[in-house]
Structures are given as structure tokens and as C-alpha cells.
TrEMBL record:
Annotated protein name in UniProt: EAL domain-containing protein
Full protein stretch here: 490 to 765 of 765
Domain of life: Bacteria
Residue span, EAL domain: 24-276
Species, as recorded: Oceanirhabdus seepicola
């Protein structure tokens, strides 16, 4: 019987699929260790406010400093962390770290600096999520208006009504909500007017060609103008060059995040950039 099973397996899984599964299991196992060993670290990417021409906030972006594999980017482990549920302790860890960092920047004399943290659908779904956010805010004694939570529209679409309710609860605490990656899903204004959000982040894929493609430029201009009429604060993501920046200025975009100003950097580097 066992032999038969073994035989079937050989047919079902070819060598490379087998290899993939082994890698996944190993990765999952080392993810447990990684939480204990504090291998998840945050890189911060500055956001510049165009009106005041100053850095008013940053986005927290997780990296995994793996003892053997080196620095692993989020796209390579967040999906597995979501499948296994490990995103819940990892997400909590990131949120706590980011909140501590806001406090730490305040102590250094920069009073209104805000940080935004990405939230996975698995976290939002978890019944303990709001409680854990409250605990962290209390523990750190943080002004909630300095914290933004980033949520993608696909997360919201999954179960619109209950998620809207949760987001309203978070906003009632004073936290800001950003809709991340706007434009990559089924985004329509008809849909976003229903969402209780404060900030709209236009995805990099829209920004990439605004300086070379007149139609892309028109679309982004339209998004910004409607979003601002709906009272959203607008952030453009993935801005890499001066031409893009100039167009976004003309179009009255509020904030810019992109390599043009800074790549994501670790804590010490962030401090240097801010105190410069
Ligand atoms: P995101 O939230 O949309 O973050 C923006 C991504 O674009 C980041 O990639 C950032 O490094 C990159 N980026 C920013 N400006 C530029 C630019 O000018 N040029 C280019 N080429 N790239 C730019 P990163 O750090 O690899 O993160 C990828 C995604 O992983 C994030 O997309 C987010 O969805 C997810 N992620 C990151 N950190 C976390 C986290 O703590 N929790 C969860 N649940 N997801 C996270
Ligand atoms: Mg984000
Ligand atoms: Mg994004
Ligand atoms: Mg993204």
C-alpha cells in the first residue's frame, strides 16, 4: 500500500514540484524560529508632502533577515505567512515596532511624523485584530492620528460589509486608513465613495508612464482631482524621476513616495535622513 502511494507520488509530483514543497516546508519551519529570533525587521520609506516640501511620514515595509538566505523581500514570504496564519504574530510585531518608532521620532523633536503599516486580509479578518491594535496604542501611549493602516481594495472586496465595519471602528479610534495599490484591482470611484478611507495611494503601475504617455497622465490627473473632491489625501507611489514629480505637482498630488526621494531604509538611516 505504502509502495503504491509512493509510486503515485512519483507520478503526481515531478522533481521540481517536490523541491518546491520541500523549500516551502523549510521556509515555514524557519518562520517560527524567525519570530523568536527577531529576524523580521522594518525598512522605512519616506513620504514627502509637496505643499510643505518636507518629509511628514514613512511607510513601514517588512524584511526578513534570514541567517542563511540573507535579506528576503516581503513578496517572497508574506503569502506563506498568510497561509499558515503566522502573519498574525508577525503583523503584530511589525505594528508594535512601527508604533515605537513613531514615539521615538517624537522624542527626537519631530512631533507630527506619521508611519503607515500594511495590514493583510488575514489580520483584518482575525477577531482579535482591533483589540490588539488598541493594546499596542495603549502600551506605547501613542497618539492614534500618527498611525495609518494600509489596506488594499482586494482585501475590502472579499467581504465588504464586515470589513467596512472594522475600518470604521479603527477610524473611530483616531487611526487613519489608506487604500493601497489603487488602480491595480477593480477600482472604480463608484466603489471607493463607499469606503471609509482617509488616504488614497495611487499604484506605481499608474505612475510609471505619466511622463511618456499622455493618456496615463490624463488618467492620473483625473484620479487625483476626483479623489481630492472626495476629501482623500492622495499619495503617489513609485515615483522615480523629476518628470513624474513635476507632473504630479501640477496635478496637485499631496504626497510622494518613491526612489526619487528615498528607497526603504533601516531605522538608523531613517534617523539620519530626518535629522539632516
Ligand atoms: P506596497 O505596500 O504597495 O509597498 C510599496 C512597494 O513598492 C515596496 O516594495 C517599495 O519598496 C516599492 N517601491 C516604493 N517606491 C518605489 C520606486 O520608486 N520604485 C520601485 N521600483 N519600487 C518602489 P516592498 O518593500 O518589496 O513591498 C512589497 C509589498 O509587500 C508591499 O507593497 C506590501 O503589499 C507587502 N508588504 C510589505 N511590508 C508588509 C507588512 O509589514 N505586512 C504586510 N501584510 N505586507 C507587507
Ligand atoms: Mg503599502
Ligand atoms: Mg502600494
Ligand atoms: Mg503593493
Amino acid at each position: 500500500k505504502a509502495k503504491e502511494l509512493g509510486k503515485n507520488r512519483c507520478i503526481v509530483f515531478n522533481k521540481s514540484m517536490n523541491e518546491e514543497i520541500i523549500q516551502r516546508v523549510l521556509l515555514e519551519k524557519s518562520m517560527y524560529e524567525a519570530i523568536k529570533n527577531k529576524e523580521f525587521i522594518i525598512a522605512y520609506q519616506l513620504q514627502k508632502d509637496l505643499k510643505s516640501d518636507s518629509f511628514t511620514g514613512a511607510e513601514a515595509l517588512v524584511r526578513w533577515r534570514h541567517p542563511e538566505k540573507g535579506l528576503i523581500p516581503p513578496n517572497e514570504f508574506i503569502p506563506l505567512a498568510e497561509e499558515t496564519g503566522l502573519i498574525i504574530p508577525i503583523g503584530e510585531l511589525i505594528l508594535r515596532e512601527a508604533c515605537k518608532k513613531i514615539k521615538n521620532i517624537q522624542v527626537k523633536g519631530i512631533k507630527d511624523f506619521s508611519i503607515s503599516v500594511n495590514v493583510s486580509s488575514v489580520q483584518l479578518k482575525s477577531p482579535n485584530f482591533i483589540g490588539s491594535v488598541k493594546n499596542i496604542l495603549n502600551e506605547i501611549d501613542l497618539d492614534p492620528k500618527l498611525l495609518t493602516l494600509e489596506i488594499t481594495e482586494s482585501i475590502l472586496m472579499e467581504s465588504l460589509a464586515p470589513n467596512i465595519k472594522k475600518i470604521e471602528e479603527l477610524r473611530a479610534l483616531g487611526i487613519k486608513i489608506a487604500l493601497d495599490d489603487f488602480g491595480t484591482g477593480y477600482s472604480s470611484f463608484n466603489y471607493i465613495i463607499k469606503l471609509p478611507i482617509d488616504i488614497l495611494k495611487i499604484d506605481k503601475s499608474f505612475i510609471d508612464e505619466i511622463h511618456t504617455n499622455q493618456k496615463e497622465k490624463l488618467i492620473v490627473g483625473g484620479i487625483i482631482s476626483v479623489a481630492k473632491k472626495l476629501n482623500f489625501n492622495v499619495v503617489a507611489e513609485g515615483v522615480e524621476n523629476i518628470e513624474q514629480l513635476e507632473i504630479l505637482k501640477e496635478q496637485n498630488c499631496d504626497k510622494i513616495q518613491g526612489y526619487i526621494f528615498s528607497k526603504p531604509v533601516f531605522e538608523n538611516e531613517l534617523d539620519k535622513l530626518l535629522l539632516k
